[in-house]
């Protein structure tokens, strides 16, 4: 394992110092492999040693079936299970026992997170198991530079760490380092190319499969399986068949053979990811087949080898006529997929975006998540900040994700979204990583990736606690500086940053208002008269989308009770989603007593003030963090403030010009 | 001379049939050269002959100093002058006498235009002279394909006829054919690369000068001189100098040497075109020098060889803050250039866009045109339809140009814009030609290029008469079809098409409202909150830009009387420019008695109806024109209608949502 030199690539949440507690001790490690290598490297740096099981020992890291185990380990009870581990502190020895190498790896990183506190008071055996078997990140990386989207679609961190100028990178050092970071957060699956599978990328399935195998080789030591986005029309494009009909025997046979060859090359291959009949991608509709037919065809090809297909539910009409008020993009996924419940194979995972639209700062939870009890659903989140500041703005997303995961579609007594996910396909996210030295463009955006892994492992973790973990790992104090101010400042800047971002952008759940195409910065009417189905319908009297059954598109009817009723009623609907579900007058009074128009003004002024405060707080940390990192964040905060002011002024001016209502507090609106 | 095969490239206004009248006669031609080649080719096709001056003759085409001249020619009096010719019909012989080969060429094409009528009744000698010495088209063609703008910036007719994939085309047949078409319209100067001079294109001045020479060789037979757009920073980029300061001796010396080398290679080289300190291009401001300093430096380098520099006046702040209401882009050119009047060299031509903004469908005439009596001004028009339908919409522009040329900035008794231009640098236009088989994408857009040449020759020509010429040349009847219906239909479709386009797009001179970037189709607020200085300031009460002295930006003060007063007054201001100069309530009553808001609705419904009528008219011409051309125009009319409906609905909906005023006639507004 090679860690890139510190001056070249930032160590993120695995700086050498994070291994000091382990590296300064006597460690027993069973077997060879990644965990032994990690420990040996840490001990070489901090004076500890890898010891046999017979002498004194401070830390045991062992697969439970290993022989011989130190005596102390035999006192620790518990069956770890796949990917799990048992952790205990017993007789002055810290013990991690796992049933498999992956579990041992997660145990090692657990000790890393605990640091010195792993070697303190005795602890009874704790069983750590991931909530789901598969914890996945998707990359929207292109092999060929796309003329519009570039090397990484919706990527804000430079080029791809896998691909460059039409081919696999020569040096895959960073791929391995990335695998190590992902493993330390709990991730164990990755798809390596864009779901919009262009011509070159389609060949990764066949003649360019060697590139995928090379990536798999780098990630395997960290327990990460590689998945591949494939083009539904591959039998035509690659196989020369006249059709890609999922019920055609020749087509099915083609996929079976192609999949067989994939597993001959990559025996632990994870499976396929498919975006079909979506935004121009081919799909089963061309053959008058259902999406279940499409997904099942691939599931059947993968089943003999234990693979899965992730089939995305992001299907809607992206050539809608804005004049057509009867079509509602929010309805589309439910309309298409709910009727198919129960018709997907066990190894077909329906990958559903968290909201009915497209990764907005605020959306209701997608009704699809509550509508398909007979289908294995994965909930898709977006770590890459497409609509949340594009890694130029601080926007710590786990508070949003936790709200989504804690949402109970069937009401207070029912299951939560987290339960649906853990009982099904788990969590999947679009990664925010590129070849930027800080991995994620904005150094603080690393926290989103780390936290996603942790939530995929355990969706009930507290976002603030995860942030603590990330801060302590990433900013291990190297001098005798009090870590308190840094930690407090980062919490102040990050804990509420998603809500801050919400305040200065599109109000009350109405969404979008971004510049078309690149989606950065404000343009209130940017998507208002386009085919994309993303409208706010603001006029001189009011704003919002009527999605009620009573007078609107009927989208509220896609939810079970009580939400169907709650969302239907402008009085009961939560304020933060009001304009998603209702078209209301500007003078409509929210639950806190302010009007909609005054809320727009107030939140936009407040959001900018919060960014200005964050910027000042960060200034005061000069000297407490690495100067290069401090500079990078400072420059980005300047841009965030500029952009937040632009949002404030455009949104406020737009609504003042339309409504004619002055700000009650007399602040400047241009 | 090779004319491309008819099935490959459309003959435009020079089909073989246009030469029938000449080609079936006995023609005396003095000297060798292009005119003789043209006549010989026509006679080979239509049975006529090139004859000596001694026998019977029907047509004499001669340079007046040629020996021996047929006797009949000696009876024709008149001094043609540079580029001019004398035309007469005498004793049954048609006579064209010129003083130079170029004049003879224009005389030949005059006879082509007249066709059989050139050989009818006797005509006394008519003297034909161009209104200006230089009649120029600019190409915004890139050598390297630009990642955003493509091979031709604002090009809607395919690739460049000069350049392809980073180099000169191997086959320059079309360049020569283009030269022939230009000469037949009266053009005699061309610049061959984009005024945004990117890295590769900068080298055309030095190590890639051979490419320019090759183009000049193709165009020289048709009397067309080549000009080159150069980068102001060339001394740095190409010469390795530390500066491009126009008053630096080393810099001046560099330009002198570079220009000397150009003329060594291309002795009849025309000169330079420069866009400086504009939209990111370098310029003299970096050295705290004036634009006169910059232009004069290049003029001095060109003067020894008789060359000219075209220096564009398109200088404004394109990074304006939309919140800053004190800055007015319309003022910029006058603010920058008017104080420099009298400080430009004689061979420095200030090239001024016709309006103060940027080639909108409707703008007032630029006040710069009236502000610089001591400077040689060229008026720049845009044949390429950037803001007028991008050669997907029928938009015959000469009525607009004629209005501009006939405008009298000093009032009814004063000189017209045409007088300023013909007394100075003449007319320049951005060409609409590319490698499309019809040259201009939309076959009917050929008429704009033809008409521009004719107006550059004589700005007082009537647009409808020019259209007649173009129709008769382009659609020479090959069968016994009555040409009347075709001619009537084309007039009905084209004469009013600019006003039709105006009706369904941005109202009352307010401009823009186009999709940012590509500028096609509507987006009312697309540029409203951007740095480009192009705003309409619509709110719930009214719309328009206050450019008065009384309460606005003071732009009206840049005009001489009476226009300064006329534009200042919302009552006197012409309706079609009302929103360019004034912000008025929606209920403001226009001179025709309708309100602004009702005018918006009415014109947008009417504009679409006019397009629908044009489409129906064209349908009826099936069979009367070449089927491929008919199909192309039909498809484009479908798109025009779709786009016009989109304009109508977006503009009407936008203003209905803002104003709340219903259409008085109850038509459907979405």
UniProtKB/TrEMBL annotation, chains A, B:
Superkingdom in the source lineage: Bacteria
Keywords: Carbohydrate metabolism, Glycosidase, Hydrolase, Polysaccharide degradation, Xylan degradation
Domain named Glycosyl hydrolase family 67 C-terminal: residues: 440-667
Glycosyl hydrolase family 67 catalytic domain mapped to chain residues: 127-439
InterPro entries given in the database record: A-glucoronidase_C_sf (IPR037054), GH (IPR017853), Glyco_hydro_67_aGlcAse (IPR011395), Glyco_hydro_67_C (IPR011099), Glyco_hydro_67_cat (IPR011100), Hex-like_dom2 (IPR029018)
The keyword RNA-binding appears for this protein: no
Family stated for the protein in its record: Belongs to the glycosyl hydrolase 67 family.
PANTHER family reported for this sequence: ALPHA-GLUCURONIDASE A
Protein name: Alpha-glucuronidase
Source organism per UniProt: Nonomuraea marmarensis
């Amino acid at each position: 394992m090679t860690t890139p030199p510190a001056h070249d690539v930032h160590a993120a949440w695995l700086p050498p110092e994070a291994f000091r507690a382990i590296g300064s001790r006597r460690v027993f490690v069973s077997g060879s492999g990644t965990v032994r290598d990690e420990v040996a490297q840490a001990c070489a740096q901090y004076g500890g040693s890898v010891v046999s099981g017979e002498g004194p020992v401070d830390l045991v890291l062992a697969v439970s079936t290993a022989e011989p185990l130190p005596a102390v380990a035999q006192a620790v009870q518990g069956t770890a299970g796949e990917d799990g581990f048992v952790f205990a502190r017993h007789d002055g020895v810290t013990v991690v026992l796992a049933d498999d190498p992956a579990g041992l790896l997660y145990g090692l990183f657990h000790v890393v997170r605990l640091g010195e506190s792993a070697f303190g008071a005795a602890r009874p055996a704790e069983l750590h198991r991931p909530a789901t078997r598969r914890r996945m990140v998707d990359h929207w990386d292109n092999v060929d530079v796309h003329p519009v989207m570039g090397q990484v679609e919706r990527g804000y961190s430079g080029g791809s760490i896998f691909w460059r100028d039409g081919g696999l990178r020569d040096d895959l050092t960073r791929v391995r380092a990335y695998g190590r970071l992902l493993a330390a957060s709990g991730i164990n699956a990755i798809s390596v190319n864009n779901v919009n599978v262009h011509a070159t990328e389609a060949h990764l399935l066949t003649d360019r499969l060697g590139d995928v195998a090379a990536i798999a080789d780098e990630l395997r030591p960290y327990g990460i399986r590689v998945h591949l986005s494939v083009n539904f029309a591959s039998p035509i494009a690659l196989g020369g068949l006249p059709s890609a009909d999922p019920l055609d025997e020749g087509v099915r046979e083609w996929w079976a053979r192609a999949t067989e060859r994939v597993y001959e090359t990559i025996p632990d291959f994870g499976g396929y990811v498919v975006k079909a009949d979506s935004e121009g991608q081919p799909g089963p509709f061309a053959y008058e087949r259902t999406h279940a037919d499409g997904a099942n065809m691939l599931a059947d090809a993968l089943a003999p080898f234990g693979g899965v297909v992730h089939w995305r539910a992001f299907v809607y009409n992206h050539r809608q006529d804005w004049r057509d008020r009867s079509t509602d993009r929010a309805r589309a996924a439910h309309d298409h997929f709910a009727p198919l419940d129960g018709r997907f194979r066990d190894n077909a995972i329906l990958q559903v975006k968290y909201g009915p639209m497209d990764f907005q700062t605020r959306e209701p939870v997608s009704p699809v998540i509550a509508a398909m009890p007979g289908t294995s659903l994965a909930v898709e989140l977006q770590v890459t900040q497409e609509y949340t500041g594009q890694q130029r703005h601080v926007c710590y997303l786990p508070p949003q994700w936790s709200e989504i995961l804690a949402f109970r579609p069937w009401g207070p007594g029912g299951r939560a979204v987290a339960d649906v996910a853990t009982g099904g396909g788990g969590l999947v996210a679009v990664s925010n990583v590129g070849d930027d030295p800080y991995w994620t463009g904005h150094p603080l955006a690393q926290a989103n990736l780390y936290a996603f892994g942790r939530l995929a492992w355990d969706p009930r973790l507290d976002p603030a606690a995860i942030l603590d973990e990330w801060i302590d790992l990433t900013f291990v104090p190297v001098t005798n500086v009090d870590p308190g101010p840094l930690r407090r400042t980062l919490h102040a800047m990050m804990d509420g940053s998603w809500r801050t971002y919400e305040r200065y952008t599109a109000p009350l759940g109405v969404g979008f208002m971004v510049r078309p195409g690149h989606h950065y910065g404000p343009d209130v009417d940017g998507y208002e008269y386009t085919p994309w189905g993303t409208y706010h319908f603001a006029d001189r009297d009011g704003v919002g989308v009527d999605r009620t059954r009573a007078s609107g598109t009927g989208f509220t009817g896609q939810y079970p009770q009580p939400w169907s009723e709650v969302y239907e009623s402008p009085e009961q609907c939560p304020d933060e989603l009001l304009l998603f579900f209702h078209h209301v007058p500007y003078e409509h009074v929210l639950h806190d007593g302010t009007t909609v128009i005054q809320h727009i003004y107030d939140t936009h002024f407040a959001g900018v003030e919060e960014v200005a405060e964050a910027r000042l707080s960060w200034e005061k940390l000069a000297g407490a963090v690495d100067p290069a990192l401090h500079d990078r964040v400072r420059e980005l905060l300047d841009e965030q403030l500029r952009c937040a002011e632009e949002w404030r002024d455009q949104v406020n001016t737009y609504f003042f010009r339309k409504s004619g209502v002055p700000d009650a507090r007399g602040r400047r609106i241009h």
